[in-house]
């Protein structure tokens, strides 16, 4: 590719390629990243060229990258964007109207996200993440499908991570309920993880849902990708429903991010005597420590969400009222296990 090809692109694709190129630059300065995010979230379609020039100047001024190397990266990124689009994958940057607005609000929002499917699923009117252990008991798994089915019928977008067990229950229930579901991946869209759920990923896209990721097909899956994925699940959702979890596990990472982002957290706890082999210790602990509200079924969940919404609307008219967090703090210092692959 001629090095002038990038310069000849429209302003939005020039910025898109530049942001994708930053993945390959060794940039450790926190202030630099914060400034880029500030530029991106305040950008408009009329000043994308100026934003691109500002970021390029910062790169050169701070000597993060040399001009010749950046030109190579820009050529590589431009070709990559074209190839992704050929495969039906959209390359989204923060200034795009379809970039998830909820995710753009977090302090480490990805400059670039890759998506396939119904992009409207990324900015729903109301959303909830349905998550939990990969080793869900059949009773909990089926309850998760039922709850997700009814949530879908009530117009909720259901987000989850495409893992086996509870995540799958959320996606499947939503599809059966004719709703819209978004799968946030710890892998690229071209190389679905876990591979056993490739069929489910295709079903999500075929049923007006969306696949979302930070990662390219050239990225080797790392353990921390799962934690990074968890933060996007929490960010994309207004509420979080934990179907089943032990005290340790990846689910707790998502709960912590939900606390950080001030999202409402619920934990499933049916009003029946569960067999001792069903591990609900994580659910019980979240409820006991006031980090989640216990719900027994769909009707209970919906009632609590509506009550919280009503209380929130009433508080807007009472500036003197003091609100307390229903999910508690996340400062207990728990050491949580990062899920393996």
Radius of gyration (Å) = 21 Å
The CATH architecture of the largest domain can be named as 3-Layer(aba) Sandwich
The helix content, as a percent range, equals 40-55%
Can you count the beta strands? 9
In order across it, which strands form the biggest sheet? 1-2-6-5-4-3-7-8-9
Total of domains: 2
Under CATH, the topology of the largest domain can be stated as Rossmann fold
Task: Note the overall shape.
Answer: elongated
Instruction: Give the strand content.
Output: 5-15%
Structural class: alpha/beta
Subunit organisation of the chains: single chain
CATH class of the largest domain: Alpha Beta
Q: How would you describe the overall organization of this protein?
A:
The chain is of the alpha/beta class. It has 2 domains: 11-97; 120-315, Rossmann fold. The chain is built from 12 helices and 9 strands. It has a 9-stranded mixed β-sheet with strand order 1-2-6-5-4-3-7-8-9, sandwiched between helices. Strand 8, helix 11 (281-288) and strand 9 form a beta-alpha-beta unit. The protein starts with 10 loop residues before the first helix and ends in a 26-residue tail after the last helix.
